[in-house]
Amino acid sequence: MWNTIEGQPPRVERMTGLTSGQLAELLGRVREVVGPWEDPPVGRPHVLCLHDALVAVLFGLRHNLSDDVVAEVFGCSQATITRYHQVLHPILR
Fold first, then answer.
1. CB-side exposure of 39: number of CA atoms within 13 Å?
2. Which of 21, 56, 59, 60 has its CA 20 to 30 A from that of 71?
3. Cα–Cα separations (whole angstroms), residue 89 to 14, 18, 84
4. 8-state DSSP, 64
5. Within the chain, where are the H helices?
């Protein structure tokens, strides 16, 4: 779903400042808190999977980017990124 350059996936380590192992560990811990992200029991499913949503929030925080810029990179709306930021940022603290 991400916009790619020359068919290559984005460099998540560069975007987040975390190694793939650190990101995987963080993802597991966040998943324990948020529960069934990909298939929520109530409401519509999320636009981005939890991994992508977490990377988007970390990317925005690390590089001090506005939500509309992050949304452009991840191919979704600014409102989506803002919602993810509101949910995930307190967990990341």
1. 0
2. 21
3. 19, 16, 8
4. T
5. 12-16, 20-34, 50-63, 67-74, 78-92
